Amino acid sequence: MKTLPMLICFALAVSGTAACAQTQERHPYFDRMDTDKSGYLTKEEVQKRFPGFSDAMFKQADTNNDGRLTLEEWQTFARAKMAERKGARM
């Protein structure tokens, strides 16, 4: 299953994000993906790390439809994917 490695990466990203968000404003994993250091993730930046990240997934994550993901949008999307995966295992 091609999406399994991506979901595992999401799980790792969120677990680190939750701990880090409590202690600082930024998250190191998000910041590494943000290669242009704009403070946002573009679809291209996400796809560079997750080649299977589709246009539909980006649209789902980009809740304000501005063409870029904030840290909050990324965390929300990753948590939702983790919950979907957890629900599928039950």
Description:
There is one protein chain. The chain is mostly helical and 90 residues long. Helices cover 64% and strands 0% of the residues. The chain has one domain: Recoverin, domain 1 (Orthogonal Bundle). The protein contains five helices and no strands. The longest helix has 19 residues, at 3-21. It starts with a helix and ends with a helix. The model is unreliable at 14-24 (pLDDT under 50).
List keywords for this structure.
mainly alpha, globular, 90 residues, Recoverin, domain 1
Q: Determine the CATH superfamily.
A: EF-hand
Name of the CATH first level: Mainly Alpha
Roughly how much helix do the residues carry, as a percent range? 55-70%
At CATH level 3, the topology is: Recoverin, domain 1
Distinct helical segment count = 5
Given helix and strand content, the structural type is mainly alpha
The CATH architecture term is: Orthogonal Bundle
For this entry, what is the oligomeric state of its chains? single chain
How many DSSP E strands?
0
Q: What is the topology?
A:
Blueprint: H1 3-21, H2 28-33, H3 43-49, H4 55-61, H5 71-89
Helix pairs in contact: 1-5
In short:
64% of the residues lie in helices and 0% in strands.
